[in-house]
Amino acid sequence: MKGIVFTEFLDLVEDKFGLEVLDKIITQSNLESGGVYTSVGTYSFSEMLQLLQQLSAHTNISIDDLLLVYAEHFFGVIEESYPGLLATYKDPIEMLSSIENHIHVEVRKIYPDAELPTFEIVEKTQDSLVLIYKSSRAMHHFGLGLMNKTFEHFNSTASIVLEKLNNEGTEVKFVINKN
């Protein structure tokens, strides 16, 4: 997993929960990196999982809800760092349907060894989209949060239904209907 995911997560924890909580979740986790990350480094997903589990234990917020909050933060990073990418799109459905063929292509230019989830388009209309998310990591709520922020970015709303296709959450169907 790319380091930017870790560095931004730690920034979020410090901003939302304070330096003391950040220090606790790092020291109470068994991190091969020691909790020291660079944005361009590559680190084990197990470290992110440990940090999420520790933060959940300290805050009594579910991991899924923490991933939603983190996605909102991360979308802000994308807005600041890559405004040209977002300006390419005029509509949230258009943007979400281009994850695989455009957005992930651009991400791979910056982070060639990034392990990204796949998004298969099952059905697309002007106001709806059905996607299948597949990943070795169960971070579908991070994806859900990014989708929510995408609609917010375009001053729009949608109902997004998430359906786990397996118990691990590594395969999920998103049914998106623009309001």
UniProtKB/TrEMBL annotation:
Gene3D superfamilies: H-NOX domain. Transmembrane segments: none annotated. Signal peptide: none annotated. InterPro entries: H-NOX_domain_sf, Heme_NO-bd, NO_sig/Golgi_transp_ligand-bd. It holds the Pfam family HNOB. One of its GO terms (molecular function) is heme binding. Residues 2-160 form the Heme NO-binding domain. PANTHER family: GUANYLATE CYCLASE SOLUBLE SUBUNIT BETA-2, SOLUBLE GUANYLATE CYCLASE GCY-32-RELATED. This is Heme NO-binding domain-containing protein. It comes from Seonamhaeicola sediminis.
